[in-house]
Design a protein that fits this description.
Elements: E1 5-9, H1 17-22, E2 38-44, E3 51-58, E4 64-69, H2 74-84, H3 91-100, H4 102-110, H5 122-131, H6 147-152
Antiparallel strand pairs: 1-4, 2-3, 3-4
């Protein structure tokens, strides 16, 4: 499959794609790997009409370059990626939070360039809350179905 669209996001203030890609739970939370300069995402777009796959990389000037795969509207995908990686707000303002709050400030020092990593949408957050405690992580590491697919499904098991 070839990329249908490309976009660039220029972070306002410090940002590490590597730290965002490594964000999660466990002893390496937020600590970038030496070779982790890319991130792959898959999510339901805000319109609920389709899913998007996005491959991100950060260049040596801190710009984030994205390649969108699929038929989702590119402007919607770019906006959603920026929101999920907290690139839709001022990085300078985020650093000011660390100056006012010593816990946040220490976290910013311990994990340079890490901004809050968010769910792609309230829909994804709700889906995660419902199914995450019932499934092994490896089985949930895919894009969640669009709402129309869930409504049309007749194959729900009741355990």
């Amino acid at each position: 499959m070839t990329s249908s669209h490309r976009f660039t996001i220029v972070p306002d203030g410090p940002f590490s794609l590597s730290a965002s890609a490594q964000f999660g739970f466990g002893p390496q939370m937020g600590r970038p790997k030496a070779d982790a300069d890319t991130m792959a995402l898959a999510f339901v777009v805000d319109s609920f009409a389709s899913q998007a796959s996005v491959f991100l990389r950060q260049d040596n000037k801190a710009k984030i370059h994205g390649e969108i795969y699929g038929s989702a509207e590119p402007k919607v995908v770019k906006k959603q990626v920026a929101r999920a990686l907290s690139l839709d707000h001022s990085g300078a303002a985020w650093m000011q939070v660390g100056k006012r709050d010593r816990v946040i400030g220490q976290m910013q020092k311990d994990f340079p360039g890490l901004r809050p990593v968010l769910f792609y949408s309230p829909y994804e957050a709700a889906a995660w809350a419902v199914i995450s405690h019932r499934r092994h992580r490896a089985r949930t590491a895919r894009s969640f179905p669009v709402t129309a697919a869930l409504v049309a499904s007749q194959n729900f098991s009741r355990h």
